[in-house]
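Continuing from the previous page...

OK, I double-checked the sequence for 5-hydroxytryptamine receptor 3B against my notes and this is the correct one:
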Amino acid sequence: MAPLWPLILVAASGTLAIDTPRPRSSALHHLTKQLLQKYHKDVRPVHDWTEATMVYLDVCVRAVLDVDAQNQKLKTNVWYIEVWDDEFLSWNSSMFDDISQISLPLSAIWAPDIIINEFVDLDRLPDLPYVYVNSSGTVKNSKSIQVVSACSLETYAFPFDIQNCSLTFNSILHTVEDVDLAFLRSREDVKHDKQAFSNDSEWELLSVSSAYSTLRSSAGDFAQLQFHVVIRRRPLVYVVSLLIPSIFLMLVDLGSFYIPPTCRARIVFKTSVLVGYTVFRVNMSDEMPQSTVRTPLIGIFFTVCMAFLVLSLSKSILLIKFLHEEQHSGQERPLLCLGGDSDADGLIMDRRAHLDGVAESPVSQEHQAHSRTLKEVLSQLQSISKYFQAQDQAAQQEVGWLALLERIDRLLFQGYLVMLGLYAVTLCSLWALWSRL
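Thanks. Re-ran it with the corrected sequence; updated structure tokens here:
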């Protein structure tokens, strides 16, 4: 019986081999090996080299990550799809267990050299190392990328600004005779596709319009697809944190015009407002875009407000200074007048000495004393007259300064009202234009 055991084992193994179905993984392995065994990834996959390889592109904007107005950069998260036909990767699915689609490593097959012209920095998410290939030879390459692109950012209407940035796709080396581009979806579908966009950020996606064009150069004609990403800023947070507090501060300073001009508390009040406005500007400077191309309108408004505050405070300080000098100069004269001068004091002392110690000629002494008294009275009257004239001149000058101050105050008050009115009209107009889009 011992020699029969090997025959029994061989027969049993043959029976198991016939009854057990062949695993599908072996067909997939065999198909992959057959496709890549004689494949040359360095050659454009066409049988007729005169035929161009058509590459279909699709772009889906998923999020706006950063808008750098100072460096004119836009950072977006984009889902990017490439589809093309590879004539060397087709097979008959009935010969391989009806396998109609497989995944192949991207590094093992030919791929189009498509780039984005506006790239200034590339911050990729983890690359997908595989592509899908179906039995007809259609290759689908999908990837998510973070695109840092150059864009002409206009922040003049901040925070009601709308940005239009382009993403231009074209081949680096292949002309339109070798690699041509086309849209995977219709332009209308691409334009109004907002389902994948994240609406939780500061920016809102309006549309993604697209266009096909041919770039002519000395090396040949290159096909290119251009996607215009139109986004707008949500302004409510900036209206609450920047515009409304600034307008409130200006209204408070506007109320300072009702304080009497000669009151020194007006200078203290205006100084406090100016310091508060300066602190507000410093704290809010990080919230405003730093653009080197054009100053935002809100920055111009803040500068004009600061200029009005400084001008109003300077006017009040100069007025107090001039009034103080006039009052000081008007007080020196009455003191000299009321106290008398040294010559008049000497004459009085001499008259008393003569009246006490001299006993000669009473008539002449009385006449001299009378004449001296008249001179003293005349001198005092002249001093009093000069004093009152100086007081009248000082009062007239003070009235003149006060009249000039009232005119300047009136002009500044009207300037405040005109500035706030124009700015309110401008903001309402910008908000209306923003809301229409």
